[in-house]
Amino acid sequence: MKLLITGACGHIGSFISERAHKIKKIKEIILIDNFNTQRYNSLFNLNKKKKFSFYNIDLSKKKLNNFKKVDYLIHCASHTNAQGSFKIKKEMYRNNLSCMKNIINYCLKNKSKLIHLSSTSVYGKQANIVSENDDHLLKPQSPYAEIKLIEENLLKKNRKKLKYITLRLGTISGVSKGIRFHTAINKFCFNASLNEKINIYKTAYNQFRPYLSVKDAFKMFKFCIEKNLFDNETYNVLSGNFTVKQIIEMIKKYKKNVKIKFVNTAIMNQLSYHVSNRKLKKRGINLTSEISQDIKETLKIFKSLKYK
Ligand SMILES: NC(=O)c1ccc[n+]([C@@H]2O[C@H](COP(=O)([O-])OP(=O)(O)OC[C@H]3O[C@@H](n4cnc5c(N)ncnc54)[C@H](O)[C@@H]3O)[C@@H](O)[C@H]2O)c1
Question: Which ranges in 166-243 belong to alpha helices (H)?
Fold first, then answer.
């Protein structure tokens, strides 16, 4: 069977590409990216035993009509910087929604099963714990998160004709070939490794947020394909809920002299919440990767850098 991965050079896409051969049933893997973030290295040394091909395509401009039917599609192509999305709001709307519509049209035409990556950043209102059906707690706090919600609704509109699953991922931790450092844990590890101050949003220090190991993200995608979980439902996907303070403590376990600076942010009014993964657990999948292990591995890639 054929798997198409969009945004294949990105952080999550490159992690899946390197391991796609472990997914039972998958014999051929098609990768697409437009090198928007220039991570050419994500294509180096892919597994020789499976049939890989790569296409340099801007999915916001070029339709996928020429591609023969694929069985599964994991859609990772997106502008992804939530904090930076205020400055490029218009472009982010254009790029991400054009890509999404292109993918939906392709899946409708070819009956391909779609894994759609949303984000737990769609939640924004105060509650002790938020779950998938708490629509009144949906309050995106950035253009990036607003777009995720629009994408989810585009899929819901087509639910009778599509087979898909929407996964609201927590913030990703862990190392991949296409690793980026603009999200919380990775950025903190990067700063600590370069002996820089870690900028922490004042309001966020003691707030709980959901995090997801990239290993658990892959486990989830593999599960969907192998168990045929395409029920047109939305699921929260996380390895655990932690405060920034707890994350910093984990970094301090492996790195001495971690320096912190408290700063303001455009996304200030978010309140503390835990995200529930009960719905997913009921489907029989348990995500158990340790965030602290990801932190250890991320710090390790910079281990040659030494400062007095
Ligand atoms: N990383 C996280 O913490 C996180 C958390 C929740 C959800 N997500 C979602 O998961 C998906 C993948 O995230 P990521 O961290 O791998 O992002 P990333 O920024 O590392 O990768 C995105 C990739 O998409 C490509 N791309 C962007 N626009 C494109 C276009 N028009 N045509 C073709 N390729 C295009 C980029 O070149 C890049 O390689 C995104 O939808 C993101 O919103 C990520």
Answer: 184-193, 214-226
